Amino acid sequence: MNIIKQMSEQGYVVISEVINKKEIDIIREYYKKILERNNLSTLLPTDVLKSPDVFNTILKDKVVTAIRELFSRDFSLFPNFTIRESVYIPWHNDAYFLPDEVINPEVPLQFMQCAIYLQDNDPELGGGITLIPFSHRLDQPTVKSMLNTPQAYEKVIMSKAGDLILWDNRITHRSTYPDKAPDNTKLALQWTVSASERHNESYLQYLQDRAQCSMHVSDYLLKSPKPYFADMPNVRYPDSFHQDSLNIHGRSCLPSTRVKKSAV
Ligand SMILES: O=C(O)CCC(=O)C(=O)O
């Protein structure tokens, strides 16, 4: 099945091996170094930008090509790129805070969540996500009733370390919970993209609001990611971007991708 058809029918795709073992280790090391400095398990976007080795992963040809193909056009990148540690989030949907036209199961794909997990996913050890295929095409009451017996519908995405998972942000998903202690820290590089600028302002407002209020289920987790949301207005294009990232952007990889000039 091609990726456009799979995204449309299943609500997610896996692009395998977008980064290799050496690149995984570099991102893991960078996370560890920054964690020692500020003790935040959701890295600040401006800290991600300081390392072109990390940020440029998002701009890799294989990544950008897949996103462009799925949207059939250039796209916007939001200032919410981060590396997150040991996030375990229950069933949720990332679109319910957006305008009705975005949530509507009938409309074409508009927002995608992107994650490169830095370890394999495993039903016992966790490390990635579990989702309900096709739930992006269902209305809220239907999904709610399915969540009474999610085992009947869920699918553990068996991604490998370094794979990119892209999901329609209307899909109902959760972290794959570990049944026993994983042997490695669960880490993921994550970000959001959109196909049209029509709803970008409301999404940016939503990200800004989350610096003050708890809205999404993940805002209620023990380690609050509020400093991460509060940092997003500091992402300014081009001033907060490393020259190596700007070179990639200018070279052609993202000729017209609209990195937001003023984040929020
Ligand atoms: O990485 C995970 O475990 C879950 C991520 C997630 O649910 C999200 O970003 O919406």
From TrEMBL:
InterPro entries tied to this protein: Phytyl_CoA_dOase-like
Give GO MF terms, alphabetically. 2-oxoglutarate-dependent dioxygenase activity; iron ion binding
Q: What cofactor does this chain's UniProt record say it requires?
A: Fe(2+)
* Pfam name, any one: PhyH
Q: Which domain of life is it from?
A: Bacteria
Q: Which protein, by its recorded name, is this?
A: Phytanoyl-CoA dioxygenase
